[in-house]
Design a protein that fits this description.
The protein has 14 helices and 17 strands. It is α/β, with parallel strands linked by helices and 439 residues long. A hairpin with a 4-residue loop joins strand 9 (247-257) and strand 10. The longest helix has 20 residues, at 306-325. The protein is elongated.
Length: 439
């Protein structure tokens, strides 16, 4: 098929910020390569943006401030949604799907929290709702889980899936800096938003983990059941103690399928410095996936940025265009959640998980306090693997304990009893420890 005779796929873009503009630029830059691979051109015929000045963009596309002008345009076959948020985005996407248009979105919050409402609309209208770019930027983790590992039972996955948090923890570890100072730098560099809550408190990572777990385990999207904890309480002292014990602290999203149910949790985690995930620094993302046939596979790369995210957006567009050229209307892949394979699997409460723990306990420097702490842990069926007790010229000293595996609710009981001791001078810091077998 040559370029003159090839069908042109008509595309509309709603939202022309970093990702929308990056997607448009990538189509312009790599248009000839896409034509060669696809056998037809992809033409942007409609753009919706409230801030774009048409004079600043070389295009024949019709530009409007109203995204509904794009989704209601009869010539548009595929809609790219990069507006973000829920309002009016949810209704824009729903209307596009109802109009029989394929939708490609980078909106992780929309998929994680309202995907269960949108996928039935896509199914009913025989169109695709594609979302590769919603998780881990340019890393094709959705395709890997859904297609490349389709023959496997996924046992677990764990990932560094927020570049801002990883940058902050890397700087704290390498330069012994305080969280607050590094956060300011991250904002100045554009890695963190003016309101960094979604990044540093784990909400962004929880959205992404919810999506990956739904694909991996065949369960409905259940963002409200994903345990979420951020990094704002991590100190350089914790990072230093972890290093002494042979670990690094990373902010991970972890999903496991167990006999008791599915774990979905986002929190700071101690992992061995020997592990591959421990060596992913800066703003990079990485996801480790364990399949029962293939074992562990690692996916590493840029988790954000205009070009990286646009790469995933346009990859979805190309997949849908290939399907369109083949004359296939039915979505090639089953919808997330809505067509769940195992919707009877329960998501476990965080108190029901079992893992190892790092505890930092501030105590008064008096004789016998360690014996009391040990006794409490023993009464709660928690055994100690390692202890660091610093001798400082102060009245308060930290005791650091690494435990063997224990059930979280038993540790909750132990921590409450430890904090009630007269010689414990503050809150106990708890960080979960993970060892990933067969990495």
């Amino acid at each position: 098929m040559n370029s003159e005779s090839a069908k042109s796929i008509k595309l509309g873009i709603c939202g022309f910020g970093t990702v929308g503009g990056g997607s448009f630029a990538l189509l312009q830059t790599n248009g000839d390569e896409i034509l060669r691979r696809l056998g037809c051109s992809i033409e942007v015929c409609r753009i919706a943006s409230r801030s774009l000045n048409p004079a600043n963009l070389s295009t024949e596309a019709r530009i409007s401030a109203d995204p509904f002008d794009v989704v209601n345009a009869p010539e548009v076959e595929i809609v790219i949604e990069t507006m973000g948020g829920f309002d009016p985005t949810f209704e824009v996407v729903r209307q596009a799907l109802a109009n029989g248009k394929h939708v490609v979105t980078a909106n992780k919050a929309l998929i994680a929290e309202r995907g269960n409402e949108l996928f039935p609309v896509a199914e009913e209208n025989s169109v695709n709702l594609a979302y590769e770019s919603s998780v881990a930027g340019g890393i094709p983790i959705i395709k890997a889980l859904r297609e490349g590992l389709a023959a496997n039972r996924i046992d677990w996955l764990a990932g560094i899936i927020n570049g801002t948090g990883n940058f902050i923890l890397t700087e704290m570890a390498d330069k012994q800096r305080q969280f607050e100072d590094v956060l300011v730098e991250a904002q100045e560099l554009g890695y963190a938003e003016a309101d960094p809550t979604f990044d540093v408190e784990g909400i962004d990572a929880a959205h992404k983990l919810t999506i990956m777990a739904s694909i991996a385990f065949g369960i409905p999207l259940q963002f409200n059941k994903t345990y979420t904890e951020g990094i704002s309480q991590i100190t350089p002292e914790d990072i230093g103690f972890a290093k002494q014990l042979g670990y690094r602290i990373k902010h991970l999203g972890i999903a496991r399928c167990t006999d008791k149910g599915v774990q979905m949790r986002v929190h700071p985690t101690l992992i061995s410095r020997k592990r591959l995930l421990a060596r992913v620094d800066g703003v990079g993302n990485a996801i480790l996936v364990h399949g029962n046939a293939v074992g562990s596979t690692l996916y590493n790369g840029p988790g954000a940025g205009a070009a990286a995210t646009a790469s995933a957006v346009i990859a979805d567009v190309i997949d849908i265009a290939r399907q369109t050229l083949a004359g296939v209307r039915k979505p090639l892949q089953p919808a997330l959640g809505y067509l769940a394979m195992h919707d009877g699997l329960e998501v476990l409460n965080i108190e029901d998980i079992e893992t190892e723990y790092y505890l930092r306990i501030p105590v008064n420097d008096v004789v016998g306090v360690m014996a009391k702490i040990s006794s409490i842990l023993q009464d709660c069926d928690i055994s100690i693997e390692a202890v660091i007790q610093k001798e400082l010229n102060t009245k308060t000293v930290p005791i650091v304990i690494l435990t063997h595996r224990a059930v979280e609710k038993k540790l909750d009981t132990a921590i409450a009893a430890i904090e009630a001791l007269d010689d414990v001078s503050g809150a106990v810091m708890r960080i979960r420890v993970e060892s990933f077998d067969d990495e």
